[in-house]
Amino acid sequence: MMEGSYEEFTWENFKRKFLAKYFSETARERYGEEFLKLHQG
User: Fold this and answer.
1) Burial readout 18-31 (b: 16 or more C-beta within 10 A, e: otherwise)
2) Residue 9 has what pLDDT?
3) For 7-11, which contacts have Cβ atoms below 8 Å and span 24 or more sequence positions?
4) pLDDT single digits (tens) 1-38
5) Cβ(19)–Cβ(28) under 8 Å?
6) Taking a C-beta distance cutoff of 8 angstroms, is the pair 9, 15 a contact?
7) Cα 24 from chain centroid?
8) How far lies 25's CA from each of 1, 3, 7, in Å?
């Protein structure tokens, strides 16, 4: 039987790991700022 660390699989854990691996914090900040500046037109 495998013994090891167990981490609860929740949406928050998944989202944190996914963003850390595929979308850096600086990119999130930059794209977040761009998103907030969008306007319809």
Assistant:
1) eeeeeeeeeeeeee
2) 87
3) none
4) 556 677 788 999 999 999 899 988 898 889 989 999 99
5) yes
6) no
7) 8
8) 38, 33, 23
